[in-house]
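Let us work through a complete example step by step.
Step 1: write down the sequence.
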Amino acid sequence: MSLKLSSYLIVPKTHIDSKKNYLVYSTRSGNSLVINEKTLSNLQKSIFTNIPEELKRKLIENKILVDSNENEFESIINVFKNAKKIDTTLSLVIAPSANCQLGCDYCGQIHSKTNMNIDLERNIINHITKKLNCKEYKDIEIVWYGGEPLLSIKSIERLTDKIKSICDANKINYTSSMITNGLNLNSRNFENLVLKMNIKSFQITVDGTKNTHDNSRHTKELKPTFDIIFNNIIKAAKSSIYLSENVHISIRVNVHKNNVNEIDDLIDFLYSKEIHNKVDLYFAAVHDWGNNKADEKIGLSQNEFAEREIDWLIKMNDLGFKKSTILPPAITGTCMTTSDDSELIDATGKVSYCWEVPYTDEFIKDTSLTIGNLNEAKEMTYNKSFPLRDWFNDIKSGTNNSSNCKNCIFLPNCGGACPISWYKGNPACPSFKFNIEDRLIMEYLSVTENQPIEAFVENN
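Step 2: predict the structure and record it as C-alpha coordinates.
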Protein backbone atom coordinates (compact mmCIF):
# COMPACT_ATOMS: atom_id res chain seq x y z
CA MET A 1 0.00 0.00 0.00
CA SER A 2 1.30 3.41 -0.97
CA LEU A 3 1.23 5.81 1.97
CA LYS A 4 1.05 9.52 2.69
CA LEU A 5 1.15 11.66 5.81
CA SER A 6 -2.36 12.48 6.97
CA SER A 7 -3.58 16.06 6.64
CA TYR A 8 -5.35 15.77 10.01
CA LEU A 9 -2.38 16.04 12.34
CA ILE A 10 -1.31 18.38 15.13
CA VAL A 11 2.42 18.61 15.79
CA PRO A 12 3.46 21.14 18.45
CA LYS A 13 6.34 23.33 17.33
CA THR A 14 8.55 22.47 20.30
CA HIS A 15 9.94 19.09 21.33
CA ILE A 16 9.00 17.54 24.66
CA ASP A 17 12.41 16.52 26.02
CA SER A 18 16.16 16.83 25.64
CA LYS A 19 16.18 13.95 23.13
CA LYS A 20 14.09 16.10 20.79
CA ASN A 21 11.08 13.82 20.72
CA TYR A 22 7.86 15.30 19.39
CA LEU A 23 4.20 14.63 20.01
CA VAL A 24 2.09 13.87 16.96
CA TYR A 25 -1.67 13.91 17.45
CA SER A 26 -4.12 12.54 14.90
CA THR A 27 -7.52 14.20 14.98
CA ARG A 28 -8.89 11.31 12.90
CA SER A 29 -8.03 8.70 15.54
CA GLY A 30 -8.01 10.96 18.59
CA ASN A 31 -4.68 9.40 19.57
CA SER A 32 -1.13 10.70 19.88
CA LEU A 33 2.33 9.20 19.52
CA VAL A 34 5.82 10.25 20.54
CA ILE A 35 8.14 10.38 17.53
CA ASN A 36 11.79 11.34 17.38
CA GLU A 37 12.96 14.33 15.37
CA LYS A 38 14.55 12.33 12.57
CA THR A 39 11.48 10.16 12.01
CA LEU A 40 9.21 13.18 12.09
CA SER A 41 11.37 14.94 9.52
CA ASN A 42 11.23 11.90 7.24
CA LEU A 43 7.45 11.68 7.61
CA GLN A 44 7.05 15.32 6.67
CA LYS A 45 9.25 14.74 3.60
CA SER A 46 7.22 11.62 2.66
CA ILE A 47 10.26 9.39 3.24
CA PHE A 48 8.84 6.18 4.70
CA THR A 49 11.46 3.61 3.69
CA ASN A 50 13.55 3.68 6.88
CA ILE A 51 10.68 3.53 9.37
CA PRO A 52 10.73 0.31 11.44
CA GLU A 53 7.79 -1.96 10.61
CA GLU A 54 6.40 -1.89 14.17
CA LEU A 55 6.37 1.90 14.22
CA LYS A 56 4.90 2.03 10.71
CA ARG A 57 2.10 -0.25 11.89
CA LYS A 58 1.32 2.11 14.78
CA LEU A 59 1.40 5.13 12.49
CA ILE A 60 -1.12 3.46 10.20
CA GLU A 61 -3.32 2.24 13.08
CA ASN A 62 -3.47 5.77 14.47
CA LYS A 63 -4.16 7.30 11.04
CA ILE A 64 -0.96 9.31 11.04
CA LEU A 65 -0.03 7.52 7.85
CA VAL A 66 -2.89 6.78 5.44
CA ASP A 67 -3.40 5.33 2.00
CA SER A 68 -2.05 7.77 -0.59
CA ASN A 69 -5.21 7.34 -2.68
CA GLU A 70 -7.57 8.16 0.18
CA ASN A 71 -9.66 11.33 0.11
CA GLU A 72 -9.54 11.97 3.84
CA PHE A 73 -12.31 14.54 3.90
CA GLU A 74 -14.67 12.13 2.14
CA SER A 75 -13.68 9.37 4.58
CA ILE A 76 -14.50 11.58 7.56
CA ILE A 77 -17.85 12.62 6.13
CA ASN A 78 -18.64 8.97 5.38
CA VAL A 79 -17.92 8.03 9.01
CA PHE A 80 -20.57 10.51 10.11
CA LYS A 81 -23.07 9.49 7.43
CA ASN A 82 -22.63 5.76 8.00
CA ALA A 83 -22.98 6.11 11.77
CA LYS A 84 -26.20 8.02 11.21
CA LYS A 85 -27.46 5.34 8.83
CA ILE A 86 -26.87 2.41 11.22
CA ASP A 87 -28.00 4.17 14.40
CA THR A 88 -30.34 1.93 16.42
CA THR A 89 -30.98 4.28 19.34
CA LEU A 90 -34.18 6.29 19.66
CA SER A 91 -33.14 9.43 21.55
CA LEU A 92 -35.86 11.63 22.98
CA VAL A 93 -35.42 14.83 24.94
CA ILE A 94 -38.59 15.48 26.91
CA ALA A 95 -39.20 18.87 28.53
CA PRO A 96 -42.26 18.23 30.73
CA SER A 97 -42.44 21.75 32.13
CA ALA A 98 -42.09 25.19 30.57
CA ASN A 99 -41.65 26.62 34.04
CA CYS A 100 -38.46 27.31 36.00
CA GLN A 101 -37.83 28.81 39.42
CA LEU A 102 -34.70 30.61 38.22
CA GLY A 103 -34.40 33.94 36.49
CA CYS A 104 -30.88 33.60 35.08
CA ASP A 105 -29.51 36.77 33.52
CA TYR A 106 -28.45 35.02 30.31
CA CYS A 107 -31.37 32.61 29.91
CA GLY A 108 -32.97 32.69 26.46
CA GLN A 109 -36.15 30.85 27.44
CA ILE A 110 -39.55 32.37 28.13
CA HIS A 111 -40.99 30.50 31.10
CA SER A 112 -44.66 29.89 31.80
CA LYS A 113 -46.64 27.76 34.24
CA THR A 114 -47.27 25.12 31.60
CA ASN A 115 -46.80 21.46 32.47
CA MET A 116 -47.54 18.36 30.44
CA ASN A 117 -51.05 17.05 30.89
CA ILE A 118 -52.26 13.46 30.82
CA ASP A 119 -53.43 13.74 27.20
CA LEU A 120 -49.97 14.80 26.02
CA GLU A 121 -48.35 12.01 28.03
CA ARG A 122 -50.62 9.54 26.24
CA ASN A 123 -49.74 11.11 22.89
CA ILE A 124 -46.04 10.75 23.67
CA ILE A 125 -46.46 7.04 24.37
CA ASN A 126 -48.39 6.64 21.11
CA HIS A 127 -45.65 8.56 19.29
CA ILE A 128 -42.95 6.27 20.69
CA THR A 129 -44.97 3.21 19.68
CA LYS A 130 -45.25 4.54 16.12
CA LYS A 131 -41.51 5.20 16.00
CA LEU A 132 -40.81 1.62 17.07
CA ASN A 133 -43.06 0.33 14.30
CA CYS A 134 -41.04 2.23 11.69
CA LYS A 135 -37.58 1.03 12.67
CA GLU A 136 -35.97 -1.71 14.73
CA TYR A 137 -34.39 0.10 17.67
CA LYS A 138 -32.17 -1.57 20.25
CA ASP A 139 -32.07 1.31 22.73
CA ILE A 140 -34.24 4.16 23.95
CA GLU A 141 -32.50 7.10 25.62
CA ILE A 142 -34.54 9.74 27.42
CA VAL A 143 -33.17 13.08 28.58
CA TRP A 144 -35.44 15.04 30.93
CA TYR A 145 -35.02 18.72 30.18
CA GLY A 146 -36.80 22.02 30.76
CA GLY A 147 -37.62 24.72 31.83
CA GLU A 148 -37.03 22.78 35.00
CA PRO A 149 -38.07 19.12 34.67
CA LEU A 150 -38.48 18.56 38.42
CA LEU A 151 -41.42 20.96 38.41
CA SER A 152 -43.30 18.19 36.60
CA ILE A 153 -41.94 15.17 38.42
CA LYS A 154 -45.27 13.30 38.35
CA SER A 155 -45.23 13.35 34.55
CA ILE A 156 -41.68 12.01 34.62
CA GLU A 157 -42.76 9.19 36.91
CA ARG A 158 -45.79 8.23 34.83
CA LEU A 159 -43.97 8.44 31.50
CA THR A 160 -41.01 6.46 32.84
CA ASP A 161 -43.24 3.58 33.92
CA LYS A 162 -44.93 3.43 30.51
CA ILE A 163 -41.77 3.81 28.43
CA LYS A 164 -39.99 1.15 30.49
CA SER A 165 -42.94 -1.20 29.94
CA ILE A 166 -42.65 -0.62 26.18
CA CYS A 167 -38.92 -1.36 26.36
CA ASP A 168 -39.46 -4.54 28.37
CA ALA A 169 -42.12 -5.77 25.95
CA ASN A 170 -39.87 -5.12 22.94
CA LYS A 171 -36.59 -6.19 24.57
CA ILE A 172 -35.13 -2.70 24.17
CA ASN A 173 -32.52 -1.23 26.51
CA TYR A 174 -33.69 1.82 28.47
CA THR A 175 -31.51 4.62 29.85
CA SER A 176 -32.34 8.09 31.08
CA SER A 177 -30.64 11.25 32.33
CA MET A 178 -31.69 14.69 33.53
CA ILE A 179 -30.60 18.29 33.07
CA THR A 180 -31.78 20.15 36.16
CA ASN A 181 -31.00 23.37 38.00
CA GLY A 182 -30.66 21.22 41.14
CA LEU A 183 -32.91 23.37 43.30
CA ASN A 184 -35.44 20.56 43.87
CA LEU A 185 -32.92 17.73 43.83
CA ASN A 186 -33.33 17.04 47.54
CA SER A 187 -32.49 13.65 49.05
CA ARG A 188 -36.02 12.29 48.69
CA ASN A 189 -36.36 13.32 45.04
CA PHE A 190 -32.84 12.12 44.24
CA GLU A 191 -33.54 8.69 45.67
CA ASN A 192 -36.87 8.38 43.83
CA LEU A 193 -35.38 9.54 40.54
CA VAL A 194 -32.55 7.02 40.77
CA LEU A 195 -34.34 4.00 42.20
CA LYS A 196 -37.86 4.39 40.78
CA MET A 197 -37.29 6.30 37.56
CA ASN A 198 -33.93 4.86 36.50
CA ILE A 199 -32.28 8.27 36.10
CA LYS A 200 -28.58 7.67 36.65
CA SER A 201 -27.01 10.81 35.20
CA PHE A 202 -27.57 14.44 36.18
CA GLN A 203 -26.22 17.70 34.77
CA ILE A 204 -26.41 20.69 37.10
CA THR A 205 -25.19 24.21 36.35
CA VAL A 206 -23.29 26.23 38.95
CA ASP A 207 -21.95 29.65 38.04
CA GLY A 208 -18.87 30.15 40.18
CA THR A 209 -18.86 30.61 43.95
CA LYS A 210 -21.79 31.78 46.05
CA ASN A 211 -21.49 35.46 45.19
CA THR A 212 -21.35 35.21 41.40
CA HIS A 213 -23.73 32.25 41.22
CA ASP A 214 -26.40 34.04 43.25
CA ASN A 215 -25.99 37.13 41.13
CA SER A 216 -26.69 35.27 37.88
CA ARG A 217 -28.64 32.12 38.83
CA HIS A 218 -31.08 33.55 41.36
CA THR A 219 -34.80 32.83 41.56
CA LYS A 220 -37.29 34.98 39.73
CA GLU A 221 -37.84 36.70 43.07
CA LEU A 222 -34.06 37.42 43.19
CA LYS A 223 -33.49 34.96 46.05
CA PRO A 224 -30.12 33.14 46.29
CA THR A 225 -29.84 29.49 45.21
CA PHE A 226 -26.18 28.49 45.63
CA ASP A 227 -26.41 27.00 49.11
CA ILE A 228 -29.52 24.96 48.37
CA ILE A 229 -28.16 23.59 45.08
CA PHE A 230 -24.76 22.70 46.47
CA ASN A 231 -26.17 21.07 49.58
CA ASN A 232 -28.26 18.89 47.28
CA ILE A 233 -25.21 18.01 45.15
CA ILE A 234 -23.07 17.16 48.17
CA LYS A 235 -25.76 14.97 49.75
CA ALA A 236 -26.38 13.17 46.47
CA ALA A 237 -22.67 12.56 45.76
CA LYS A 238 -22.09 11.24 49.27
CA SER A 239 -25.22 9.10 49.42
CA SER A 240 -24.99 5.30 49.53
CA ILE A 241 -26.85 4.88 46.23
CA TYR A 242 -24.48 7.17 44.33
CA LEU A 243 -21.90 4.40 44.14
CA SER A 244 -24.17 1.36 44.37
CA GLU A 245 -26.34 2.58 41.47
CA ASN A 246 -23.41 4.01 39.49
CA VAL A 247 -24.88 7.52 39.44
CA HIS A 248 -23.07 10.28 37.60
CA ILE A 249 -23.29 14.03 38.36
CA SER A 250 -21.78 16.63 36.04
CA ILE A 251 -21.39 20.20 37.23
CA ARG A 252 -21.46 22.61 34.32
CA VAL A 253 -20.05 26.10 34.77
CA ASN A 254 -21.32 28.70 32.31
CA VAL A 255 -18.31 31.00 32.12
CA HIS A 256 -18.78 34.70 31.45
CA LYS A 257 -17.16 38.03 32.25
CA ASN A 258 -18.87 38.24 35.64
CA ASN A 259 -17.61 34.93 37.04
CA VAL A 260 -14.41 34.10 35.14
CA ASN A 261 -12.19 35.22 38.01
CA GLU A 262 -13.97 33.04 40.57
CA ILE A 263 -13.64 29.65 38.86
CA ASP A 264 -10.43 28.91 40.79
CA ASP A 265 -12.32 29.49 44.04
CA LEU A 266 -15.10 27.16 42.89
CA ILE A 267 -12.52 24.43 42.22
CA ASP A 268 -11.14 24.95 45.72
CA PHE A 269 -14.66 24.81 47.16
CA LEU A 270 -15.42 21.45 45.51
CA TYR A 271 -12.11 20.11 46.79
CA SER A 272 -12.84 21.30 50.33
CA LYS A 273 -16.21 19.53 50.28
CA GLU A 274 -14.48 16.27 49.24
CA ILE A 275 -16.63 15.65 46.18
CA HIS A 276 -13.97 16.60 43.64
CA ASN A 277 -13.30 12.93 42.89
CA LYS A 278 -17.00 12.02 42.74
CA VAL A 279 -18.43 14.51 40.25
CA ASP A 280 -17.36 15.80 36.86
CA LEU A 281 -16.66 19.50 36.51
CA TYR A 282 -16.60 21.11 33.08
CA PHE A 283 -16.75 24.58 31.60
CA ALA A 284 -18.82 26.12 28.81
CA ALA A 285 -18.54 29.63 27.44
CA VAL A 286 -21.80 31.56 27.61
CA HIS A 287 -23.15 31.95 24.10
CA ASP A 288 -26.20 33.14 22.24
CA TRP A 289 -29.31 31.14 23.13
CA GLY A 290 -32.60 31.88 21.48
CA ASN A 291 -31.17 35.14 20.10
CA ASN A 292 -30.53 36.57 23.58
CA LYS A 293 -27.07 37.85 22.46
CA ALA A 294 -25.50 36.65 25.73
CA ASP A 295 -22.15 36.18 24.01
CA GLU A 296 -22.08 39.84 23.00
CA LYS A 297 -23.23 41.09 26.40
CA ILE A 298 -21.13 39.03 28.83
CA GLY A 299 -19.26 36.44 26.75
CA LEU A 300 -15.50 35.90 26.53
CA SER A 301 -13.54 35.63 23.31
CA GLN A 302 -12.81 32.08 22.18
CA ASN A 303 -9.09 32.54 22.79
CA GLU A 304 -9.57 33.99 26.28
CA PHE A 305 -11.89 31.18 27.33
CA ALA A 306 -9.52 28.52 25.94
CA GLU A 307 -6.54 30.03 27.74
CA ARG A 308 -8.34 30.17 31.09
CA GLU A 309 -9.79 26.68 30.63
CA ILE A 310 -6.32 25.13 30.46
CA ASP A 311 -5.36 26.75 33.76
CA TRP A 312 -8.47 25.28 35.40
CA LEU A 313 -7.86 21.82 33.94
CA ILE A 314 -4.27 21.84 35.21
CA LYS A 315 -5.41 22.87 38.68
CA MET A 316 -8.07 20.16 38.76
CA ASN A 317 -5.51 17.57 37.70
CA ASP A 318 -3.10 18.69 40.43
CA LEU A 319 -5.84 18.42 43.07
CA GLY A 320 -6.87 14.94 41.99
CA PHE A 321 -10.25 15.76 40.48
CA LYS A 322 -12.10 13.02 38.66
CA LYS A 323 -10.16 12.64 35.42
CA SER A 324 -11.74 14.34 32.46
CA THR A 325 -11.05 13.89 28.77
CA ILE A 326 -8.15 16.12 27.83
CA LEU A 327 -7.64 15.19 24.18
CA PRO A 328 -10.76 15.32 22.04
CA PRO A 329 -11.66 11.85 20.70
CA ALA A 330 -12.72 11.11 17.15
CA ILE A 331 -16.53 11.17 17.06
CA THR A 332 -19.24 9.70 14.83
CA GLY A 333 -21.94 12.35 15.27
CA THR A 334 -22.58 15.84 16.57
CA CYS A 335 -25.91 16.30 18.35
CA MET A 336 -29.61 15.59 18.07
CA THR A 337 -29.98 18.16 15.31
CA THR A 338 -28.14 15.97 12.80
CA SER A 339 -29.70 12.64 13.83
CA ASP A 340 -32.90 11.34 12.23
CA ASP A 341 -33.50 9.29 15.39
CA SER A 342 -33.50 12.20 17.84
CA GLU A 343 -36.35 14.53 18.76
CA LEU A 344 -37.30 17.00 21.46
CA ILE A 345 -40.85 17.17 22.85
CA ASP A 346 -41.86 20.12 25.00
CA ALA A 347 -44.76 20.69 27.39
CA THR A 348 -46.96 22.13 24.65
CA GLY A 349 -46.56 19.01 22.50
CA LYS A 350 -44.21 20.67 19.99
CA VAL A 351 -41.71 18.28 18.43
CA SER A 352 -38.41 19.79 17.27
CA TYR A 353 -34.81 18.67 16.90
CA CYS A 354 -32.62 21.20 18.67
CA TRP A 355 -32.10 21.97 22.37
CA GLU A 356 -32.48 25.67 21.65
CA VAL A 357 -36.02 25.46 20.28
CA PRO A 358 -38.25 24.93 23.35
CA TYR A 359 -39.63 28.04 25.01
CA THR A 360 -37.32 30.51 23.23
CA ASP A 361 -38.83 33.56 21.60
CA GLU A 362 -36.67 33.12 18.49
CA PHE A 363 -38.05 29.66 17.69
CA ILE A 364 -41.60 30.47 18.66
CA LYS A 365 -41.49 32.85 15.68
CA ASP A 366 -39.19 30.73 13.51
CA THR A 367 -40.76 27.27 13.05
CA SER A 368 -38.16 25.95 10.61
CA LEU A 369 -36.81 23.47 13.18
CA THR A 370 -40.26 22.30 14.27
CA ILE A 371 -41.43 18.90 13.02
CA GLY A 372 -44.99 19.09 14.32
CA ASN A 373 -47.15 18.94 17.44
CA LEU A 374 -48.35 15.81 19.23
CA ASN A 375 -51.49 17.61 20.41
CA GLU A 376 -52.68 18.04 16.84
CA ALA A 377 -54.47 15.40 14.80
CA LYS A 378 -52.33 16.26 11.80
CA GLU A 379 -49.78 13.56 11.02
CA MET A 380 -46.18 14.77 11.23
CA THR A 381 -44.16 14.52 8.04
CA TYR A 382 -40.44 13.88 7.95
CA ASN A 383 -38.40 15.06 5.01
CA LYS A 384 -34.91 16.09 4.04
CA SER A 385 -35.92 19.72 3.68
CA PHE A 386 -35.59 20.30 7.43
CA PRO A 387 -32.56 22.58 7.93
CA LEU A 388 -29.43 20.86 9.29
CA ARG A 389 -30.89 17.33 9.26
CA ASP A 390 -28.54 16.69 6.33
CA TRP A 391 -25.69 18.54 8.05
CA PHE A 392 -22.81 16.42 6.76
CA ASN A 393 -23.81 17.05 3.17
CA ASP A 394 -24.17 20.71 4.17
CA ILE A 395 -20.50 20.65 5.17
CA LYS A 396 -19.58 19.13 1.81
CA SER A 397 -21.43 21.83 -0.07
CA GLY A 398 -20.67 24.67 2.37
CA THR A 399 -24.34 25.49 2.93
CA ASN A 400 -25.89 26.81 6.17
CA ASN A 401 -22.66 28.73 6.90
CA SER A 402 -20.69 25.49 7.27
CA SER A 403 -17.86 26.28 4.83
CA ASN A 404 -15.48 26.84 7.76
CA CYS A 405 -15.77 23.15 8.68
CA LYS A 406 -14.78 21.61 5.35
CA ASN A 407 -11.12 22.58 5.61
CA CYS A 408 -10.85 22.36 9.40
CA ILE A 409 -8.34 19.91 10.83
CA PHE A 410 -10.66 19.27 13.78
CA LEU A 411 -13.62 18.09 11.71
CA PRO A 412 -13.20 14.48 12.98
CA ASN A 413 -13.44 15.69 16.60
CA CYS A 414 -16.39 18.05 16.43
CA GLY A 415 -18.29 17.51 13.18
CA GLY A 416 -19.22 21.18 13.22
CA ALA A 417 -19.92 21.13 16.99
CA CYS A 418 -23.18 23.12 17.06
CA PRO A 419 -24.93 23.28 13.68
CA ILE A 420 -27.59 25.69 14.94
CA SER A 421 -24.89 28.24 15.82
CA TRP A 422 -23.43 28.10 12.30
CA TYR A 423 -26.97 28.22 10.90
CA LYS A 424 -27.47 31.53 12.73
CA GLY A 425 -24.06 32.82 11.63
CA ASN A 426 -22.28 32.36 14.97
CA PRO A 427 -18.90 30.54 15.06
CA ALA A 428 -19.24 27.28 16.98
CA CYS A 429 -15.61 26.13 17.17
CA PRO A 430 -14.86 24.16 20.39
CA SER A 431 -12.29 25.44 22.87
CA PHE A 432 -9.84 22.62 22.14
CA LYS A 433 -9.23 24.18 18.73
CA PHE A 434 -7.55 27.08 20.54
CA ASN A 435 -5.67 25.19 23.28
CA ILE A 436 -4.87 21.82 21.68
CA GLU A 437 -1.10 22.10 22.09
CA ASP A 438 -1.48 22.77 25.82
CA ARG A 439 -3.86 19.81 26.05
CA LEU A 440 -1.34 17.57 24.31
CA ILE A 441 1.43 18.50 26.73
CA MET A 442 -0.92 18.14 29.68
CA GLU A 443 -2.02 14.67 28.59
CA TYR A 444 1.56 13.64 27.93
CA LEU A 445 2.75 14.75 31.36
CA SER A 446 -0.24 13.07 33.01
CA VAL A 447 0.32 9.74 31.29
CA THR A 448 4.11 9.67 31.55
CA GLU A 449 4.40 10.97 35.12
CA ASN A 450 5.46 7.52 36.36
CA GLN A 451 6.16 5.85 33.02
CA PRO A 452 8.86 6.06 30.35
CA ILE A 453 8.12 7.59 26.98
CA GLU A 454 7.81 4.14 25.46
CA ALA A 455 4.76 3.44 27.64
CA PHE A 456 3.11 6.57 26.33
CA VAL A 457 3.72 5.42 22.79
CA GLU A 458 2.22 2.02 23.56
CA ASN A 459 -0.83 3.28 25.43
CA ASN A 460 -1.79 6.24 23.28
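Step 3: interpret the result. The CA atoms of residues 184 and 292 lie 26 Å apart.
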